[in-house]
């Protein structure tokens, strides 16, 4: 098939005497195709198709119902937990949770990756939610 080789990099120096082992680090990986592999492929390689991930097609009411069921047995929910129970991808789950915070159904504790969502003031679901 071929072989891989590692490329090395170093910080720019004015004097070659300043080059030390500590200044050299890993750069890129290079791949050289063997002649046999090149002949077998005959210059044609088809890229493997990789499907894009999609969020689940659940309605807002169903997502909210699953959230309430989860919060009955747990004191809080994280974005990762919400993604797993609803099937939403990361950004969609965050948008959904932030919308619920904005509407007062949830409130947040913490920041960044340590943010958790707890029950808010109003618990009733409205038909226009999510």
TrEMBL record:
InterPro entries recorded: HU-HIG
Domain of life (superkingdom): Bacteria
All copies of domain HU, residue ranges: 1-43
Pfam families attached to this UniProt entry: HU-HIG
Protein name: HU domain-containing protein
């Amino acid at each position: 098939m071929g072989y891989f080789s590692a490329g090395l990099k170093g910080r720019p120096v004015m004097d070659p005497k300043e080059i030390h082992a500590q200044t050299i680090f890993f750069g890129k990986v290079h791949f050289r195709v063997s002649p046999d592999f090149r002949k077998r492929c005959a210059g044609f390689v088809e890229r493997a198709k990789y499907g894009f991930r999609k969020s689940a097609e659940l309605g807002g009411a169903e997502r909210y119902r699953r959230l309430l069921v989860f919060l009955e047995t747990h004191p809080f929910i994280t974005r990762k937990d919400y993604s797993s129970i609803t099937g939403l991808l990361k950004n969609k789950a965050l948008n959904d949770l932030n919308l619920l915070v904005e509407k007062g159904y949830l409130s947040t504790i913490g920041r960044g990756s340590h943010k958790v969502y707890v029950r808010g003031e109003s618990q009733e679901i409205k038909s226009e939610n999510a």
